[in-house]
Design a protein that fits this description.
Number of strands of chain A: 12
Low-confidence stretches of chain B: 1-17, 19-23, 25-36
Helix content of chain B: over 70%
Largest interface: A-B, 32 and 38 residues
Radius of gyration of chain B: 22 Å
Number of helices of chain A: 9
Order of helices and strands of chain B: HHHHHHHEEHHHHHHHHH
Shape of chain A: globular
Oligomer: heterodimer
Mean pLDDT of chain A: 89
Mean pLDDT of chain B: 83
Helix content of chain A: 25-40%
Distance between the termini of chain A: 43 Å
Radius of gyration of chain A: 19 Å
Number of helices of chain B: 16
Shape of chain B: globular
Structural class of chain B: mainly alpha
Distance between the termini of chain B: 22 Å
Low-confidence stretches of chain A: none
Number of strands of chain B: 2
Strand order of the largest sheet of chain A: 6-7-8-3-9-10
């Protein structure tokens, strides 16, 4: 399945264009990282993709066809940032909400829905937490619950909004590894919003830099360059390569 | 928006774990680990049975308790007689009390209590705030004004309940239209416009009280605004039972969707649910319930605020269980308070005073318990 955005533009009512004429393509089993400064429109772009907001012009296509509201619900799973909840739902209750597109307005989760929730909890390895209220989870655990909730709806594209923010170093890497694993094991592609170019280099195949009036899109190894880091993130940095156990590892070092 | 989330965070902590946690039940019963055969769902099943029997017991007690105590077995005899249309001349007085006064009254308490509680639970979910009661959008004050106007214009007749119902709906509609801008209704502006509409109707009610005849109309208005089930008749119940029951069923059917709406609009959309339509249906249903309740019993506060909290402690936060539990507990709660209202003093107390006197301390204890554990 191929996800395409063609000439996407967006502006909040009464404001200048935030996103201008953005186009990119994502193939099956690929991860796209979206990089850019705060307030540049990364989250807005994800919201346009998921249909929470509507493109002002341009469109999203899946396999060459315009993504309509119904398809969007069927194909796209969205993982929001881990944040505070209004009610202390248990993990099981929370994850089962991911099945809502399969559950009628006037009904409640069926046996199959519960079964699927159970499977996903095992897959993500949080089955032991199933009766814990979400308000008592750590940031990393809560992020896992949100990921489980998105996966349980069996989407074709998974969209993450800064999944590793607010997490400690270890949990950041754990989440990245999990995302990589999900994309490899299931036939889905994935878009992730991040502030860390290093994380993008670690897991993504494609990268999209969003700037004020332009953007840059391509293979991660070709797009994440010292030039682009300065141009789009306003950071002077050096990309260093070293080898570890016969693998070459890349790292971004901000210059003083 | 940031600020709103911060305040939400604090609200969050008011809720806590349900009491029905298996480990707690087991440790209370001192059941050794290997013998733990009851699953969580079977515990919940027992909770349902307990709640239903509690409602039935309070309903029955309400028929023989009161100023004039009738023995339980006589009450049963009267009920059987009236079902079989047997006329026992010895029990004429008791029959008149049980079937003519207490039965419709208890039925009305149950309907109103269940209705107010389920709309309170729904509103707290929709507005993602534990301090919301079903009259947050001004239903009660609107209906209160309607009644006062009705009494002023026509005296106390059947018209007054119609006016109560009408103005209850008008006030919510006004709040909704006031909050609507560019085809978009945000929750904050809805709550704020509810407060505006409420205060306008409160002022208008005061104006009517000021103009009313102090010997005749004013006491009628004041007494009615405090709430009472003493004047409820079968014909009142016939008028409101259908709308209240239909709306309760609608809310019960929507109960799982309320979970999704309580996550906020954006998350609901990302899960493939259109929050706007469901919210409008739920608001209309709750409004009809409250307006209908106020039209037969006056303003009965606190039930819609307190009962959902009690229910959460018993059954958990999942609205799938919370809404039906609120119904059962709300019905029992209001019947109990009504029994108190007509037994503790020779003259009957207005029930609105008692729900506040019973409900507020109860709520305070609940809050204290939560805050002692450092959760709030």
């Amino acid at each position: 399945m191929i996800l395409e955005v063609k000439n996407g533009s967006f502006a909040y009512p009464g404001q200048d264009l935030l996103l201008q004429d953005i186009s990119f393509t994502l193939e099956e089993n690929e991860i796209l990282a979206v990089l850019g400064q705060n307030g540049i429109g990364k989250t807005t772009m994800l919201k346009c993709l998921t249909g929470i907001l509507k493109w002002k012009s341009g469109n999203t296509f899946i396999d060459g066809e315009i993504l309509d509201a119904k398809q969007r619900i069927d194909q796209i799973g969205y993982v929001p940032q881990a944040r505070n909840l209004s009610f202390p739902y248990t993990v099981k209750e929370m994850v089962s909400m991911g099945r809502s597109k399969y559950i009628g307005t006037f009904s409640v989760p069926s046996k199959e829905d519960k079964q699927r929730v159970h499977e996903v909890l095992q897959e993500i390895n949080i089955e032991h937490l199933k009766d814990t209220p979400c308000t008592q989870l750590s940031g990393g655990q809560l992020q896992l619950v949100y990921i489980a909730r998105a996966i349980v709806s069996d989407p074709k594209v998974l969209i993450f909004d800064e999944p590793e923010s607010h997490l400690d170093y270890k949990n950041q890497l754990m989440i990245l590894k999990l995302i990589k694993g999900i994309v490899e094991n299931k036939d889905i592609s994935c878009i992730i919003n991040t502030h860390h170019p290093e994380h993008a280099m670690k897991i993504s195949d494609k990268t999209l830099f969003i700037g004020k009036n332009d953007y840059s899109f391509g293979e991660t190894s070709k797009v994440i360059t010292e030039n682009n880091l300065e141009k789009y993130l306003d950071v002077k940095a050096k990309i260093a390569t070293f080898s570890f156990e016969e693998q070459s590892v890349k790292s971004v070092i901000a210059l003083p | 928006m940031d600020r709103v989330q911060v305040s939400n965070k604090q609200d969050t902590e008011v809720y806590e774990k349900p009491m029905v946690s298996m480990s707690r039940v087991y440790s209370m019963c001192k059941i050794p680990a290997r013998n733990r055969v009851l699953s969580k769902s079977s515990v919940i099943f027992f909770v349902w049975i307990a709640l239903c029997s509690f409602l039935i017991i309070t309903f029955f007690s309400s028929l023989f308790l009161g100023r004039f105590v009738i023995a339980p077995d006589t009450t049963i005899e009267i009920l059987i007689n009236s079902i079989l249309h047997i006329n026992d001349p010895q029990l004429q007085q008791q029959t008149a009390i049980v079937t003519g006064l207490r039965f419709p009254r208890t039925l009305a308490c149950m309907l109103v209590g269940a209705g107010m509680a389920i709309s309170g639970a729904t509103f707290q979910g929709l507005f993602r705030n534990p301090l919301v009661s079903p009259d947050i959008l001004g239903v009660s004050t609107g209906a209160g004004f309607g009644t006062a106007l009705g009494i002023l214009l026509f005296g106390f007749t059947g018209f007054t309940s119609f006016y109560a119902f009408l103005f209850g709906l008008i006030s919510v509609l006004a709040a909704y239209l006031l909050a609507k801008s560019r085809n978009h209704v945000s929750i904050i502006s809805l709550v704020l416009s509810g407060i505006i509409v409420s205060s306008i109707f409160t002022a208008l009610t005061s104006l009517i009280k000021y103009m009313a005849d102090p010997y005749d109309e004013l006491p009628a208005i004041t007494y009615w605004l405090m709430g009472s089930f003493s004047k409820v008749t079968y014909s009142d119940i016939k008028t409101v039972a259908v709308p209240i029951l239909v709306c309760i069923v609608i809310l019960l059917l929507l109960r799982w969707r309320i979970n999704i709406l309580s996550l906020g609009d954006e998350e609901a959309r990302s899960l493939g649910v259109d929050p706007v339509k469901i919210r409008i249906i739920a608001i209309i249903a709750s409004t009809i319930i409250v307006a209908a309740s106020v039209s037969i019993a006056g303003v009965v506060g606190w039930v819609g605020l307190v009962v959902p909290h009690i229910s959460r402690r018993i059954i958990g936060v999942d609205h799938k269980n919370l809404l039906p539990a609120s119904c059962l507990i709300g019905g029992s709660f209001l019947i109990l308070v009504d029994i108190l209202a007509r037994t503790i003093t020779p003259a009957e107390l207005p029930i609105g005073i008692l729900t506040a006197l019973v409900g507020a301390p109860f709520f305070a204890i609940l809050l204290k318990k939560v805050s002692n554990r450092g959760e709030w």
